[in-house]
User: What shape does this take?
Amino acid sequence: MKLFPMLTLLCALSAPGAESDWVTVGDPGNPPDKAGCGGVAYEYQIGRFEVTVEQYVEFLNAVAADDSRQLWHPSMGLAEYRVTEPVFAGRVPPRMPGCIRRAGDPGGYRYEAVAGWEKKPVVYVSFLDAMRFANWLHNGRGKGDTETGAYDIAEHGGIAPHAPGARVWVATENEWVKAAYFHPPRKGGPEGGYWLFPTQSNDLPGLHDPGAPGANLANFFNLRLPKSQFTDYTRIFPVGSFPKAASHYGTFDQGGNVSEWNEAVVYQTQRRIRGGSVGDAFEVLQRVTRISSRPEKEYPDTGFRLARPVPAPATGRLGFAQPSSQR
Assistant: This one.
């Protein structure tokens, strides 16, 4: 496959060359919040949106013909189904999403998005899957290596840090929190610089369907439903469905819709998950809520978002002067 310049490749969060899919997070040297999160000493860029199903399909079709790394989860191929374990007896079981179908035999697998899921964030992806996606981008897409580059998975497994020279990586917790919640008071932000929700608000976001015009909206679990009602995970929305509900830096969907992995290592064996999902109550969307899980775990409501250095303005090439190891 022909390799395009690396900058063009790394701009492809929605389409090759789409610079609008990255936002620059400035204000270097900002203070952390009271929990010690969100302080970042350098400028960086972060995905405006999570990685989508159509982007992950491109990745699978490039590197998973035999899927020896198990980058495709079988639940991705079920267009929609209900969990039927006895624990749900007498209650409405959750509806689970499917997002990517697989066809063919080992060595010749092909993948396609379930209709209507192309622009939704990919789910059923582990942190290891996210690391391999980042390695693939770092190495030029196409048949690029998935095991080394941004992350040395062979050496460090699921808790590998991203390399100082990484061209792209899964956002660190500090990078993720700053992009979601920080807003300098001198620029109209709250006292202390951090909002409670990633919609530039300390007030509870509203619940609406995609396309609603409000500035404080999110997709999370509706507590007004009967207590017997379980989550409808199929109600994950396309990225950017609330066009006015951005963070100060211009990111979308960092609260609700799907939770997101970030790079923080917890208990030496787990990775952090932030932001809450369609399956979570509003408290999980708040900046003060932090959860974690093992990097090999996959969930029907969890995806990921990437970060990268700010491109050097004179050459259009990615610069690597910023320290990229801060957690």
Summary: Residues 1-19, 315-327 have pLDDT under 50 and may be disordered.
